[in-house]
Structures are given as structure tokens and as C-alpha cells.
Amino acid sequence: MSKMAASMLETGEDVFRKIFKLYRRKNPPPDFSDAIDFSRGLPSDKIVPAKLDPAAVSDVEAGRAGLRPVRDWRAFGLKGYPGFIFISNPFLLDSQPFWVRQCLKTYTQKPNVCNLDMHMSPTETQDIWGQSADSLSHPSSGKAEPKTLLEKLRWVTLGYHYNWDTKTYSVSHHTPFPADLHFLSHQITSACGFSGFNAEAGILNYYRSNSCLGIHVDESELDHSQPLLSFSFGQSAIFLLGGIQRQDPPTAMYMHSGDIMMMSGQSRLFYHAVPCIVPAPQGHTALQMEGCSRESSLLDNSVVAPVSEEDWLLCSRYIQSSRVNVTVRQVLGPGQSFPETPPLHQRNDDSQTEGYHDRGVDKESGKSSSSSDS
Ligand code: OGA
Ligand code: MN
């Protein structure tokens, strides 16, 4: 990839955008052999083991969040990306179904906000799961059927609700952050050496097989000293991690179900994007979870509860062709509060109410050179 990156630099073009488009290409399909796959432990001179702090999280606390003991986690860093940590699926076998169910059934409920609220009344978007259950759980008759609300869902915001227009959070648009996700986030950040992480905002992205996420930096949070956490569930994806500039050639890596990424330190403000969704490897992820959801090795006071067979049927149908990404952010530093008015540079942008997915591939030029969803 570096040769290609160098030649693009010579032509003065945006290296990140070129590589993004390369991974989005349908014909001929991209060469995925450059993408790092942490789950395979493929030898790469770019990968280094990440130092965790197993003493910061007891086995019981990890277990309550549905995680394996920290000493068993496979965590990696990447040379040239200080503060970036990739944890290859640290979840206990039977806990992923719970988090998937939360993303589809629980976090989609009011008072959380979703893209459907932009065009529909709160009563219409009250029960996205319930309204989608019937048609999703019955095999398609072959005829083109109207899309369910779950299939139309693109994003949900939690806690301080991200405003896509102004690219800000505000004190007035806040609802309680889910306690279970707060707890999970706390265990992971603690294991990674951040003791005081406070999950205050969440963005859930729902990807269909042809979705993508444009090139961006997450800089709207007021405190960048705390990490940004990202969880992947369902189908796999290619993640591109660049640098502080668009000319920095990004590194491509696979994200599989259960994988967790932490962006902290310098990497906290690096450009990144998801150019494409790729099928989960056989026996690897979503499908492997089938049947594991009821069998319960869960602790008594676990935040992770068993998932009913009925719920799991719908979840597994959904993730057979979808990916769910959860990002968790701390917005304010200790003792920090929101400024009276948002900074000017965050107010004069064009409308982004549909979220990243409709940004197109290049948020700087505003060009939408690919339809991110059909
Ligand atoms: C985000 C983000 C990446 C992903 O929501 O800001 O970068 O893996 N998500 O979907
Ligand atoms: Mn992001």
C-alpha cells in the first residue's frame, strides 16, 4: 500500500480518499490482503502487543460485563499509532447476544434519539423492535416487501445526543446513559489504563451490507484526554485508520464481531472511516453465537442477562446481513461544563441530520460520490 500511497502523494491527491474509494470498489473487487486481521494473529511488523492492566479489573467485574478475564484478552497496538488499542473479541461466548439485543431492542427505545425521529413522530418510532419483529422473523415470501423500521435504522444516540447539524453536544439535549453500557465501557477503559472514564455519549451505527462511513475525526467532545471506545457486532468491516492529516496513508484492518477498539492519546484525533462491510468469516462471529444465548454461565449479579429464544431469532436474522457499531465517548472533562454558545467553526456547516452515513465519502468537499445506502 505504501508505494501506491507515495504515487498518490506525487499527484497531490488526498491519499485517504483514494484508499477509501479503493476499498469501496465493486469491480474489480479490492485486494483485501493488505488489511490487518488481528483475529488471525497474522505476522505483521506493524503489530505490537498492547500493555493492559489486568489488576485494574477483577475477573468478577469483567464477568459481570460479559468479558473474559483481562489476562486472557488479546490486545494489540499499531506502530505509528500511539494510543490505539485493538482488543480482539474479549467477550465471553454467551454474552455477545445480550449486547446485540441491547443495540437492537433496548437502545432503540425512547428517550434515545434515532435517524427515524427526523421524519417520524415519537409515537411512530416508539417501538422499532416490536414493529419490525413480525416481518423480520418470518422468512421472506420472495416478493419485495416494505422495509421494516429496523432495516431503515441508521443511527441511535445515547446520553448527550450528538447534533449532526451543529456537530456539537449540549447540556439541554441529554438523557440518561444506559447503565449497562456505562459499566462495560468502564471495565474496558480501566483495563487499558484509564481509570476515570465516564461514558457520557454514545453513537450507534447500523450498517447494511452496502453501507459505509465517511472519512472523519471525532473532535466534538470537549475533553480529548479520555479515549473513544468502539464495539463491533455482527458482520465484519474494513476500518481505515489514518493520521492527523488526510495525506497520511491509512492502515486497513478487519473488525469482526466482538472486537473492541480504543482510540486515545494521539490516535484519539486521527482520521478514520469504514469503507465497506464484509461477510463475517465462517464460524467466526454472529452465526457462531447462535444457540449460545440461553445457556447461562452468567454470574448472579451480571449486567448481562440471558436472551430469549424469540429475541435471539430476530437478532440473528438482522445481523446475518448487518453490522452494528457502538461508539462510547466522554464529552466533558472533570469539572468541565459546556460553553454558552458553540464555537463558531462548529456552527456553519451544512445539514447532517442523517448522520455519517449520508456524508458521502468526503466530508471536506461535501461531495457524495457514493450512495452509502440504498
Ligand atoms: C464513529 C465511527 C466506526 C465504526 O461512529 O465515529 O468511527 O467502526 N465508527 O463503525
Ligand atoms: Mn469515528
What does this 3D model show about the protein?
Residues 347-355 and 357-374 have low confidence and may be disordered. α4 (96-106) crosses α8. This protein has helices spanning 2-10, 15-24, 59-64, 96-106, 128-137, 149-152, 179-191, 309-319, and strands at 47-49, 74-78, 84-88, 113-114, 155-159, 201-208, 213-216, 228-234, 236-241, 251-255, 260-263, 272-278, 322-329. With 374 residues, it is α+β, with helices and mostly antiparallel strands. The chain is built from 8 helices and 13 strands. It has a single domain (2-371), classed as Sandwich (Jelly Rolls). Strands 1-2-3-11-8-13-6-5-4 form a 9-stranded antiparallel β-sheet, with helices on one face. 44% of the residues are buried. The two termini are 30 Å apart. The protein is globular and about 50 Å long. The protein binds N-oxalylglycine (OGA) and manganese (II) ion. N-oxalylglycine is lined by residues 203, 205, 213, 218, 230, 232, 239, 255, 272, 274, 325, 327.
Which features characterize this protein?
9-stranded antiparallel sheet; 20% helix; 374 residues; 4-stranded antiparallel sheet; 8 helices; binds manganese (II) ion; Jelly Rolls; single chain; disordered C terminus; binds N-oxalylglycine; globular; alpha+beta; 13 strands
Give the ligands present: N-oxalylglycine, manganese (II) ion
What is the CA-atom radius of gyration, in angstroms?
Answer: 20 Å
Enumerate the spans where pLDDT stays under 50 for 5 or more consecutive residues. 347-355, 357-374
Sheet with most strands: strand arrangement: 1-2-3-11-8-13-6-5-4
CATH class: Mainly Beta
Report the structural category: alpha+beta
Compute the number of structural domains: 1
What share of the residues lie within helices? 10-25%
**Could you give me the name of the CATH homologous superfamily?**
Alpha-ketoglutarate-dependent dioxygenase AlkB-like
Order of helices and strands: HHEHEEHEHHEHEEEEEEEHE
Count of DSSP strands: 13
Characterize the overall form. globular
End-to-end Cα distance: 30 Å
- Enumerate how many helices there are, as a single number: 8
Mean pLDDT over all positions: 87
Largest sheet: 9 strands, antiparallel
Q: Determine the strand fraction and express it as a percent band.
A: 15-25%
